[in-house]
Task: inverse folding
């Protein structure tokens, strides 16, 4: 097995997690930056449509590093997908696959379900729920909470901030509620 | 100066009229030019590669997590926190300075009810989109063009929060 073959396999959690954790000291030491990604959404608002709202009137250019960071995430996603693609089939826990089949999901070949994340769904009820409503909840919720998985769960917990623990518990509570209580109803709409 | 800033963050975080409070702030005193920002692009790039290779961007993996059918995502987040925690403690213990020789500043997170309400709302969205804000960017880079709509909706959601902020419980 060549090195390229080796890194093309899906990376286990004990490789990915520590690398993600190292982002925290890396950003702190190369430029005194606290790790957090959802802030980029706020900077986009501040740069494009501040609309005289006090929340968006600040010097976003000073925070432009965050926009460079997310641009890097996008490019990294591109490089990993097109140059380090996993040649084997995507493997999913059988119990999850069974539950999702009951919801009507049929395509388990990629990282994202083609039944949902397809261009053909853009102007349908599915698209409205999975792209528009989902995106609105993510953007509104993260800003209301003052951070997302990176800013609270990773950066905040790394610095032993109890408000971040509260936020992380609430992220999980919301996710469990949607998955187990709401998604079964949502999937009946289609 | 930085300590003063951090203190003001702690004392009154909820009023929009306050001086700028960012959750992922730039605390470097020296200003940087645009090319210096490229190093954050490189860090982001490595991050994006990990997101894809560990399949963290996968909607299916997020479903597995919330269905408790796989340890993978818990392992990723848990080990990231452990490594982050150890690093931050080492930086504090040995007062390690930044590359520019400045003391490392980490503003404290202050509690407000937004972390409960907003956190829950984000969680609902996380299980629908299968992505937190970081993976959204990596999904788009991976060729899932429709996620651009999700990202724009997330920007719109952020804007709506800014619009309704004064009227929301904090």
Result:
């Amino acid at each position: 097995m060549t090195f390229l073959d080796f890194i093309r396999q899906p990376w286990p959690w004990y490789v990915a997690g520590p690398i993600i954790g190292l982002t925290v000291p890396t950003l702190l030491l190369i430029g005194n930056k606290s790790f957090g990604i959802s802030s980029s959404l706020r900077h986009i608002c501040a740069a494009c449509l501040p609309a005289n709202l006090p929340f968006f009137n600040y010097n976003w250019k000073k925070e432009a590093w965050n926009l460079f960071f997310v641009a890097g995430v996008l490019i990294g996603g591109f490089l990993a997908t097109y140059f380090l693609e996993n040649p084997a089939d995507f493997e999913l826990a059988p119990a999850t696959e069974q539950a999702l089949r009951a919801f009507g999901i049929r395509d388990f070949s990629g990282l994202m379900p083609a039944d949902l994340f397809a261009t053909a769904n853009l102007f349908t009820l599915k698209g409205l729920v999975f792209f528009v409503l989902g995106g609105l909840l993510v953007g509104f919720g993260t800003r209301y909470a003052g951070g997302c998985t990176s800013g609270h769960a990773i950066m905040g917990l790394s610095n032993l901030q109890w408000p971040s623990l509260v936020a992380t518990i609430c992220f999980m509570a919301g996710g469990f509620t949607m998955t187990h209580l709401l998604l079964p109803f949502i999937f009946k709409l289609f | 100066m930085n300590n003063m800033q951090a203190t003001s963050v702690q004392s009154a975080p909820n009023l929009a009229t306050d001086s700028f409070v960012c959750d992922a702030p730039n605390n470097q005193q020296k200003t940087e030019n645009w090319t210096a920002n490229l190093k954050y692009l490189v860090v982001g790039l490595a991050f994006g590669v990990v997101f894809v290779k560990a399949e963290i961007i996968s909607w299916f993996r997020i479903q597995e997590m919330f269905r408790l059918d796989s340890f993978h995502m818990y392992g990723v987040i848990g080990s990231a926190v452990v490594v982050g925690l150890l690093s931050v403690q080492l930086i504090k213990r040995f007062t390690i300075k930044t590359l520019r020789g400045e003391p490392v500043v980490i503003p404290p997170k202050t509690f407000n009810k937004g972390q409960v309400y907003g956190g829950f709302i984000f969680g609902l969205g996380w299980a629908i989109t299968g992505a937190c804000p970081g993976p959204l960017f990596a999904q788009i880079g991976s060729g899932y063009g429709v996620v651009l709509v999700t990202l724009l909706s997330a920007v719109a959601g952020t804007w709506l929060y800014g619009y309704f902020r004064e009227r929301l419980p904090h």
Notes: Chain A touches chain B through 138 residues (CB under 8 Å). Chain A has a mean pLDDT of 95.
